Amino acid sequence: MVFHRIMAIFAAMFEQEIKEYESVRQDYQQQIADKMGREQWMEYNEILFSAHSCAIEGNSFTVDDTRILREQGMAMIPVGRSLLECTEMADHFRAFDYMASHLDSPFDEALLKEVNRLVTEHTLSYRAPGAVAGEYTTEDMAAGDTVFGDHETLIARVPQLMASTERALNDGQHPLVVAAKWHGYYEYLHPFRDGNGRTGRLLSNFILLRAGHPLLIVKLEDRSSYISALKQIRVEGTDEHLIAFFFKTAISRMKEEMAEKRKLSKPILFF
After folding, report:
1. Phi/psi of residue 104, each to 5°?
2. From the CB of residue 207, how many other CB atoms can be counted at a distance below 10 Å?
3. How many CA atoms lie less than 13 Å away from 65 in the CB half-sphere?
4. Which of 63, 94, 250, 259 would you label with 6, given CA atoms 20 to 30 Å apart?
5. Is 146 in a helix, a strand, or coil?
């Protein structure tokens, strides 16, 4: 009940953002998603999302590199990219495909662990020898300048987070608010040895896709703002900054794509 009251408070706080988001989303659905067709729209999103989500974690693949790998597989490794990066990207494709094809699955630990297993399946042994893909960490974690809490204490909170999020979705809370709040708290818990960021962004989009919303794509150029918003959860104990970041990112992306389509629909002179 406390979680639901908190969700209602945040929905009221972001009333204007929700109103703008829903207006833009309606236009985006009609102008972009519907006209592109489900299959092509999802492929477009998978390539764009995978490129930026892995880049946030240090992968050097560009969007074009990602498209080539998606279309031609490991038989065509882009020039200048390492085998580890290619493998990481291929694992991300498998995790994305699983996430997108299991939208009727409960939002629970089984889903969380399977997505993380797929994300890290072929790279974890290199980054953390002895760790098991899809299983929670057995030691305390650190990332960048952050030392996370006691891993056993944090992991014990995962079931409640998943269950509370599922209830919020079933109760009709706004999907973008739910996705942001889940993402922020999940990254705070940081339960896996590797792949927490990629797993978190994938399951945030599970929440959105299950509700029929466009994917949220955090671009590499927005990494600093994104990390800063996540840090505020640990520093100030509030996820207002992350929710605001999610709305800004989602609205900007949809507006930019619609503007690009209008621009490229204008007539040009050939001679």
Report:
1. -90, 0
2. 25
3. 22
4. 250
5. strand
Structure tokens at 78: 């882009």
Query: pTM value?
Result: 0.94
DSSP 142: E
Q: Per-residue pLDDT tens for 26-76? A: 999 999 999 999 999 999 999 999 999 999 999 999 999 999 999 887 766
Q: How far apart are CA 87 and CA 93, in angstroms?
A: 10
Over residues 67-124, the pLDDT tens digits come to 999 988 776 677 788 999 999 999 999 999 999 999 999 999 999 999 999 999 999 9
User: 167-206 pLDDT, tens per residue?
Assistant: 999 998 999 999 999 999 999 999 999 999 999 999 999 9
Spatial separation of the C-alpha atoms in residues 194 and 189, rounded to whole Å: 13
Q: Which phi and psi angles does 34 have, rounded to 5°?
A: -65, -40
Query: What gap in Å lies between CA 243 and CA 184, rounded to an integer?
Result: 9
C-alpha to C-alpha distance for 217 and 209, rounded to whole angstroms:
12
Q: Could you write out the DSSP letters of every residue in 229-252?
A: HHHHHHHHS--HHHHHHHHHHHHH
> Long-range contacts of range 101-109, CB-CB < 8 Å, 24 or more positions apart?
103/206, 103/209, 103/210, 106/166, 107/162, 107/165, 107/166, 107/169, 107/203, 107/206, 107/207, 108/162, 108/163, 108/166, 109/158, 109/159, 109/162
CA 152 to CA 136: how far, in whole Å? 9
Whether the pLDDT of residue 17 is over 70: the answer is: yes
Return the structure tokens found at 263. 């621009």
